[in-house]
Please model this.
Amino acid sequence: VSRLWGGRFEAGLAPEALAFTRSASFDRRLVREDCRVLAAHAAALAGGGILSRAEAGAVATALTQIAEDVASGAFPVLPEDEDVHSTVERALLERMPEVAPKVRAGLSRNDRVATALRLWMLDALTRVRRHLRDLIGALVERAASEVWTVMPGYTHLQRAQPVTLGFHLLGHAHALRRDVQRLDDAAGRCRGLPLGAGALAGSTLPLDPAAGEALGLGGRMQALDAVSARDFAAEFLAAAAILGAHCSRLAEEIVLWTTTEFGFAELHDAYATGSSLMPQKKNPDVAELARAKAGRLIGNLAGLLATMKGLPLAYNRDLQEDKEPVFDSADALDAALPALAGAVRTIRFERARMRSAATDPLLLATDLAEHLVTKGVPFAEAHEAVGNAVRSSIETGRDWRAMTIEEWQVFSPRFDAGVARVLDVDSSVRQRLGGIEADLEEMAAWVASQAGERP
Ligand code: ARG
Model:
């Protein structure tokens, strides 16, 4: 029997009830963690004298093999296994029929699954963090070669002021770096040890707390909280959703920039796809799917919070629904981040095209107003004067760069020969973006410092 309960039941679970409540189809991904948790629990029993040290050692050895066998399929998960814990128990009973029945003392699937999920998540966090660091690294590398590559900066998707491509790429890198911090925060609160909580209220047995602590999750949690809490999962999903939103914004820009209309960039063939119908097409599917993943990531967070919000303490079966969103968000990021990093590393930027989109002198209107401010003109007045000059240029088609000082002085007597320098796009970006080199250096140092992995 792979059922972990049954004494009080006369009849077995109806097939449709089993099919509905069963979690083995997805929680089998926790098999390695579940085996570690069970081995730690056996050690806790040994510490309290319930099992011998030798028995606990043999259980640990058997569980290492069981983890491999279930993961590889050599030991199959059966349709009647309710969850991964049932499969592991069945294997242990088969292989150690004497000891296995003793190991479950003081352990509930409630503390067991919460512990296993925390262990799984810490690994996932490390993996996602590594992918994310690599994406940031890609952005920083590309920024380093484009520090002074002039391009238009946008607000409302309308050309606003000239910036540089390096500056723009670093903007994304900064947002993603905060996502690393968020993942680290989530990892911090993922550490906590449910094992020892039993179903909700601890155990009368002398379970050795040190054995559970060897799992590396820190000290035992308050029992009731330990089996009820899923904020650690929600926090990961929240960090993942925000990260997803940031990736989506980067992806959207790749989509925009690679249009014929923008023409700012061309994806490498290795990161673009064709059309089965239109031979000329080169589509940014990697970027589009990275953009789309944000939807799932946000959905996973919203779903788990909705599941959690009405639950009384402590464990409720609803909590079984915590795993699929966690797995799905981790999977989405594991797939999207490397693909996006590759696209960023290999995309070709059309520098000339970016520059020509940024050389409309009207984009320097703000610089010009600020120039008047340095001449003692109050900003509101300067804004008005330059605004008049903008309107006149639009109406007459007169290029600002061709205007004489006399023409400028119609708008403000304080305009002088300095206007020509203000209207130079390169000197404009150098004046405004002077901090970029230090920023780039700091970012590159940060990326390098992350080579040794946390959390
Ligand atoms: N599959 C369950 C889950 O993931 C395991 C815990 C079941 N606990 C219980 N009391 N039925 O939450």
In short: Strands lie at 150-155, 158-164, 265-266, 348-349. The chain has 20 helices and four strands. The CA atoms of residues 239 and 362 lie 40 Å apart.
